Amino acid sequence: xxxxxxLELERVCCALCGSERSETSATGEDFEYETSxxxxxxxxxxxxxxxxxxxxxxxxxxxxxxxxxxxxxxxxTNPLVARLQRFWEGGKVRLYGTFVGQGxxxxxxxxxxxxxxxxxxxxxxxxxxxxxxxxxxxxxxxxCRAKGFEAYCERIEDFAQRPDQRNRFDAILMLQLLEHVxxxxxVCEHVHALLKPGGVFIVETPNLGGLDYRLFAGRWWGHYxxxxxxxxxxxxxxxxxxxxxxxxxxxxxxxxxxSAWIISHxxxxxxxxxxxxxxxxxxxxxxxxxxxxVVVDQLRIRSGRETSNMRVIARKRAP
Length: 319
Description:
The protein is α/β, with parallel strands linked by helices. The N and C termini lie far apart (54 Å). Helices cover 35% and strands 23% of the residues. The strands form 3 sheets. It has a 7-stranded mixed β-sheet, with helices on both faces. The protein has a 4-stranded antiparallel β-sheet with strand order 2-3-4-11, with no helix packed on it. The radius of gyration is 19 Å and the shape is globular. The protein has a single domain, classed as 3-Layer(aba) Sandwich (Rossmann fold), CATH 3.40.50.
């Protein structure tokens, strides 16, 4: 694969407290998609302990760092993995239903990709639910619309300015997306504006913890996802952020993190110069490795330990 050179980068301050005081916590390249030759740095804020990418790609580089074969745009190609994924995520949808409620509900999936999860919401959720998609990739939005879904090609920052969308939604899902945005606090404000009073905000995002984080922190950890992850949280810091933006926390928990385990190993072996056939074995679509990762993280969850993935379900406080 030909690497295109350097990206346009911009310096930033801490997105949570605004401090410019930081120290480097991780350094690495785009191990997964090789979209640039740049070396990237996660830094830790010395005032609030938040970790973020600095410098990071300018918004003009988004089409480069999210190539057409990005995993959320193309979905899973392994039939066995797709079946297991559907079973697992079907359970998630049923869990969401206990918070969202039954009957007519408008649900917004932010970062909906090609509409795979929109379809699951329609199939596993209440038949009266109305799943809506939001994604910045035109091809992915076209795929959602071809499946019959209402979908919009824009960022949530712009979508939230539409008068007809404010206070429209009973639930907003942001699954593995908050870590990609430049201003997570502002995004939470936009979500708050789009939700009805009492509406539910479901967030799943990496957690700066877990055994895989401790083993691969500093360079190879899969959830660094250089240069696409811009902000990384802990369960406590995410809960505090949501509470500060007008949400009440209904549920907070750790989840399995199969991709982080697998991609961390892949990054390590690739970066250390192991043969191509070996590091390519560590694919997030490898059912054997997925099974091993599920076992490890389930054991950790049941024993009360952290994993490198988490979910917070919060509710917009009534005025």
